[in-house]
Amino acid sequence: MEVFGIILSLFLLMFMAYRGFSVILFAPIFAILAAASQGMSPMPTYTELFMAKTVSYVKVYFPIFMLGAVFGKLMEATGFAKAIALKILQIVGQERAILAVVIAGGVLAYGGVSLFVIVFVLYPFAAALFKQAGIPKRLIPAIVVLGGCTYTMDALPGTPQIQNIIPTNFYGTDVYAAPFIGIIGALLIFFPGMYYLEYRRKKLNAKGEFYGDNRVNEPMESDDSNLPDWKLALLPLVSVLVINFIMTNLFQWNPDLLAPFIGMKLPLVSAAVKNIKAIWALIIAVVIGITLCAALGYRNLQKGGLATALNAGAIGSLLAIMNTASEVGYGNVIASLPGFRSIADALLSIKIGGTPLVSEAVTVTTLAGITGSASGGMSIALDLMAKDWLAWANSIGMSPEILHRVAAMASGGLDSMPHNGAVITILAVCGMTHKEAYPDMFSIVIIKTVAAFAVIAIHLATGIL
């Protein structure tokens, strides 16, 4: 009965999210429902557990959400993002249109641009290109997923996306953790993903389907004559990566920086500098990237464009962070219930390979799928079990770096279920329905999930990090 209450709560949350209702509203409602089914008092569950975990997540990650959204909006408003995309098209050629869009999405994501911005940049670019090349429109969402939220989101070392930041707070690692296994994982996603998309294009073309007649949300023709130079456009992206690397690997943080704040007995203060320095490094890097983007692209902005971009990014980040934080709050309520203990014990008992890696990957990707959020699901899983996995790894001499990389890659697997916010946004922007485009999106997700488990096998066989 205890497990049934949890399952019912999860089903209702997924159903409401799929129907378009906000998880900010319904996550606490169904968390309270699950808690009440197991005898917990509703109001303390909401104010002392749900809200405490929600606020804790916001405290740590809101700067990353806000600055990332502002940076992405500025890259879009200055024309820098589109200039980079068009240059990539020139390099690879129109005959490799799918490859051009995937690479463009990857460059933007690895440079720190949010997926929610990337889709708005890539869709008009892909639509115009695919009309000429006769590539089915229904493939655009899957192509955006491969380029914007797979190998560059959590596999490649150094990516500034939030999915690569979260494990640093639990394992004391940095964003470059397990670099070689990350690169291998990225290749295991990129090449099978490209093969699948090209296979689907050929198969659909053979059936007589080309771009198609779907004109929902069809982009207008745009004037690309006044776009900035692509080399100039790359500088803000490069600056984020370089400054982040310097602040993470070369700069020596004073380990006593937090001492005065710990002495104040603040409720949410980090325990040690090593636990928060990755966040600090990325904040500094993205602030510099924003400043450089605004300075170099100011002439490309329309009157009032700077304020518009800054405001849009800041306001847009509020919805993104609160959606994810609410899912984290919900997940932590579920994790505290007696009925979840048996589930957690089963997940921790997975000892395939004699290491915590399979247990971690299964737990993270399962919770990401349940919550419909990579960062939310991973945060819940690590908050619940990271200490156990780390202790297990230490007992067998395993580096926490591989725990970081596996957790990050697993989070971006089954998170993209139909109720996932990014999935819904991508489909809406592209003017497609779940029925038309989601099967191909899900195929890319399966490739991504398999890659996460493949890198575990490679690490166990070779010991490579």
From TrEMBL:
Pfam family, one: GntP_permease
Record GO terms (molecular function): gluconate transmembrane transporter activity
Domain of life, source organism: Bacteria
Keyword field: Membrane, Transmembrane, Transmembrane helix
A GO cellular component entry from the record: plasma membrane
Membrane-spanning ranges: 6-36, 57-77, 97-126, 138-156, 176-197, 232-251, 278-298, 441-461
Name of the featured protein: H+/gluconate symporter
Organism of derivation: Sporomusa malonica
